[in-house]
Write a structure and sequence with these properties.
This protein has 2 helices and 33 strands. The protein is mainly β and 490 residues long. The strands form 7 sheets. A 6-stranded antiparallel β-sheet has the order 23-33-24-29-30-31, with no helix packed on it. The chain is globular and about 65 Å long. The protein starts with 6 loop residues before the first helix and ends in a 10-residue tail after the last strand. Bound molecules: beta-D-fructofuranose.
Amino acid sequence: MKKSINTKEYKSEYRILKSPEEIKKLHEKALSSAYRQTYHIQPVSGLLNDPNGFVYQKGKWHLFYQWCPWGAFHGMKHWYQISSDDLITWKNKGVFLRPNTYFDNRGVFSGSALVKDDDIYLYYTGIHGDQTTDMMASTCIAKLKEDGRSQKFSAPLFGPNPEYTREQRDPKILFDHNTNKYYILMGGQTKDLKGCILVYESEKHNSGWHFKGQLKVPGYEDFGSMWECPSLERISNQDVLIFCPQNLHLEDHGQGTNHNGYLIGSMDFNTLTFTPEGTFGLLDFGFDSYAAQCAANLDDDSKAILIAWMGLPGGTYPTDQEEWSGCLTLPRELTIRHKRLIQRPLPQILSLRGNRINPGLGILPAATEILIATYPQDFNMRLCCKGDGSGGILIDYNDKTQVFTMDRSGMTNRFNQEIGEVRSRILEHGLTSLRIFIDNSSIEIFVNDGDAVFSSRIFPEMNEHNYIVNECRSLHIYEMHSGIKESLVV
Ligand code: FRU
């Protein structure tokens, strides 16, 4: 978080959106982009980052995202609202939270949702700053009213904790049935610059909050310099702690230093300890995935529904030139198998399946689903390559070493090269199947029925829509219909 604001920057990037007219041109420019997605959530203009306030209630899915209307940069953050009946087709609803109070005059940062007595409450970080004081993060609350608008509470639930650095944000609200209390987990940083989670407790969801302490996570006391977007999910009677450690090198994640991962284990709010039963696992093995959030208020304890930002802090993308950036991943169903999180596309994504494409053609539609069953042997394919089979994304599996690799260095448009262009993962049980979703500027590869996912942005040129594949048991390709209507609702 930057310390103070310089006047020029404040005026251009840090202003509140008041009317659609202000972004009409930016919106039209974004619409004319060759890289506009057809079935992924993307911003009407400017930059999208974290999903926020994801919640299910009475047959409706509510979702919000971090949004800077003014361009492809992390300027003044608003919460933009979208909603869906099926998690596949989404409607733009407009700005939900504007940075228009003392406590959030420099941005409405990420947060989560809670359903209480049929009402939906949103918990978020308000960032206050002015030309003289340092940034201050407060934990704030708003209600989603019947008419779909927001009603902010006049005062924050609590302010910054002086025992930690200013890096405190992203409240995750939850209710614990053992202690019968509410908890808020906050991403934080100790004064000796170690990432951590701060835990607040209350008997009521909307008042009486106090600092309970720092979450103990044995073995993870020195694991990155800041933990963003913490979350705690209960899936099939196991606790899953999800967070984004920063400034950390992980062996299986290239040269990137920002990660989104999880620990499976057990949570005890009395002792404030999360005891991991295993090691930190990455949620996604691709290049662009961060700030994942699970939907609150599901009535099924055997799974969670997760969605993430298909982007990275500090990343730059080719559409930055067109003054827009960012999209979300497909929502996924999360389950646990053999102490590992399994991520599968939702069954209802089938409703977007269009015509079957003849695999003999060697050409991919811009929005497509590919299903492959492999033989127990080496496998490789190139996607989004040129007509002569060169370039593109190389997908390779070496049966001897069991290493599965995705390499995007063959694409004409290369970006974020400093974090590496190759990602791999060992498949202990070999490669059996791939389910791949390509949209105009993204690819999500589900390996072995959700055992690993590789999500990445890609920006193919006009001549990069071919593919080649070596021997496989079966190959099906479908065109995908559009799931999301573009409409400038502000
Ligand atoms: C993660 C993050 C959050 C913060 C938000 C600001 O990408 O940095 O920690 O609340 O983005 O947009």
